[in-house]
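Exercise: predict the fold of this chain.
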Amino acid sequence: MFESVDHVQAADPAALAAVLFTLTDDEIAELPVEQAEALVLATQRVASAVLARQHSAMETVARRCDERMERLAHDARAIGGRSCHLSGQALAAGSLAALLHVSPRTMSTRIDRARRLVCALPRIQELAWSGDLEPYRVDAVVTESSAVPVTRLHEFKSRVLEAGATELTCAALRRRARRSADRCAPHDAEELARLARSRSEVRVRPGECAGMTRLVADLPTPVAMRVWSAVDGLAAEYSRAQPGLPMGAARADALSDLVGANASIRTIVELVVPVGVERGGTGTLGVSAQCLAAGADPGDDGPSAESGSTAGPGVYEDLGGCEELDDGVLHDHAGTLWFVSSHTEVPLLGSLLPADVAALLSDPDVTIRLSRSDSVTGAVRWQDPQTYRPGARVARAVRSRDGTCRFPGCATTARRCQLDHVVRHPDGPTIVTNLQSLCATHHGFKHHAGWRVEMDPLGVCTWTAPDGRTHTTWPMDRHAFRHAFRAA
């Protein structure tokens, strides 16, 4: 059955499926490369055919639900009652969403595509049914067909299915479908684009692994061109300053810095302590991170906003920063010891690694809120309306000393700057003599553009540019005593 790719290409998907499920993993592992390639094609053809049948089943469910809701509405009108405003598709989406473990909104979108494919693009459905058109190529055609009115779909299908359509790559088939839609209904395509622009959005989802998050943006093309130009241009500077830095990573750094330079970002970490735990018990930190506030007593009324401390005397030895443990990190934050264990789940975004949470706690601008949770259910039962800044004194001292951003030539006021560790955390402590005020733009220059900085005990910063030139910046001179600094 799997002697060659040509043989598989000509076979019926049902026959292929019957043989596929008789193979064991050991048998597949022993196949020569030619037969293994044929098997890969066979599984794809079967999967394509199966998904086409799923699309037909989705259309059937939605149609039956429409009929059911129409009958209910008719019966309600007959007796003078109120008809239900729930649509048949919404009913179908809710039912199927539970079966396929997706959200009703996602399921409704899938049903929309299935109905358009089965009812309006039967020839495309036939190719998928026979295993000759993979789901990703089907989706490309269905998506582009949305710009075409029903009365012109026959012309759209004819243009898309010109000679060689099944041999085109997904990208090439999408381009053909888009050109076909433009030719069939240019004015409709413009109207669809106008409506789409009104629905521009940025979506967020967990990344490919813990500690990573993915952002997806749908923007009008002119806007996307400007955004991409800004990101790519700054990334090119970063790449030149750091040879070997992958361009993708440089673009990610550039996007982060551009957003940070134009937004005020406030970080609030919620410390959730189970009610009734003993001194030194385990609570949750941040967005569900496990932590231990050394010496914290859940029976207290909460930390003092004046003292800026969230815990009593420490019960661990001072580790001088952040030490890796078997299941987390022990972090010294301005004299308060935090144990951060496991991963911290962040709704919609993914999860933070223990070191990520420790890095958040090393920021003197971080704000902490205290909450109490039920020791059995884990539900929050009480939340302190006040928030606390454990590092507020350090932050005030650094900004007062600096006055402005400490990058050479920058006059951004310190109150609008971020606080940066001169020696990066966790190697450097969170103390006044290891912190400086940097605006978001120049914070990015330090971390991504190859600039280096050193600070002496008087707060004088010596910057080294990527080309080796040095620049000195001084704390704010409030009495015109700059010569005194130099003499010192």
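Check your answer against the key: The chain has 17 helices and 17 strands.
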